[in-house]
Specification:
The protein folds into 3 domains: 4-153, Beta-Lactamase, CATH 3.30.450; 203-303; 306-449, Heat Shock Protein 90 (2-Layer Sandwich). 50% of the residues lie in helices and 20% in strands. The chain has helices spanning 4-53, 65-72, 148-183, 185-196, 215-262, 270-296, 311-328, 346-363, 418-428, and strands at residues 55-57, 60-62, 81-86, 92-95, 108-109, 114-120, 123-134, 137-146, 307-310, 332-337, 341-344, 369-377, 380-387, 432-437, 444-449. The strands form 4 sheets. Strands 3, 4, 5, 6, 7 and 8 form a 6-stranded mixed β-sheet that branches. A 5-stranded mixed β-sheet has the order 10-12-13-15-14. Strand 1 and strand 2 form a beta hairpin.
Amino acid sequence: MRTIRQRLLLLLLPALALLMLLGGVADYWIAVATTRNAYDQALASAALAAAASLRSEDGKWQVGGAQRAAVTRPGDADGSRLYSITGPAGELIAGTAQLPAALTEVAGRGDSVSFRDADYQGQKLRVASVRTDTERGAVTVTVAETLQRRASTQRVMLIGKLLVDFAELDVTLLLISIAVYFGLRPLSRLGEQVEQHSTSTLARFSEADAPGELRPLILALNHLLELRHDAAQSQRRFVADAAHQMRTPVAGLLAQLELLLQMPAAVAMHGELQAINRGVQQLAHTANQLLALARAEPVAALGESFKPVELRPLVEHQVDRNIDRAVNAGLDLGAEAQAAQVTGDAWLLEDLLGNLIDNALKYTPAGGHVTVRSGVEHGHPFLEVEDDGPGIAESERLRVRERFYRLPGSPGSGCGLGLAIVDEIARAHDASFTIGVASQGRGTRMRIRFPQ
């Protein structure tokens, strides 16, 4: 996925390419016009100098040696410049006899030099002509040269200008990239702050150092956080109210059923009453699990309620609560608790550890062992419950975290919410929940690894 800087540069590239193309065309015409004017001026100067030095002495025409050299250009051995001087009757006074008469047909008068393009022996020529009046009549001076030197000079100028343009384009792109980078730094910092917000963090973003362009976005994010905070508070209040409203009548119903089962008149209906009692107990368990799941969801697990929690007392308390159940099931439940502290919600962490222990006791057969641990490993606090039961196949370790999913052939009548609750609470604490094989090579080890 492209970044904003990449998108801006991609948007600018076509415009810069078009400007480069237009600049190349302009450079070409500038090179052509510059060399044309310079070379035409040189031709005109040579023609005018030769015309000014022309003299008639004793019936013969004389051209100054310096001017004759000017029209042929010293060192011009490649024959790129030709000239001819013709008299009033068209006779050749000096120069190239083979130069076509057509080249001298139109000439400027006095200081006026005329220019035109012509062909000579298969070559393109640029011609400058001037006509001057003498005591013997009008004399025409024509200077012509091939276009090779012009073309060479034009290429050098054009290549040099294009190289400069490319260098300017590279520098422009670099400066734009740097400007965009530093211009987007506040947005990048805001993005980092958003990423650092955990699912349970609802702290507002600061507007103090934000550029004016970002303030509407920050205000919108803060408004969204306020709405989420209000929703979380509402859900927490609902969960608390629902827990109170559901537990009280269910507890009363269970107490009434216990009393009814002890009455002599209930002997005839003892089996039916026991079934009702088990159903009500299952209802109470499912209701408690649903409420625990609602408390653990990110929208309800507010980071502002997190406080330092000692894991060792938490482990010891949960083991004490479940010791009678373990003894009745013929299981060895023990603790290996080391001191460790995390920042979290003690109520949620009790639900988390209680569900891990409940899961281990439920699936470990009689005679098995369940060990609950806490401590710090590589700087990370952890909670762990290990058993030597049947274990969980690797292919099922993701599915058992799903709500209402139970392993095929599971004993008892659970509702399939225990590990889903553990997973939600772990994520609310930015912790990782892993399911592996116990140290003996069989059974299950479930670990919650908290951030440092």
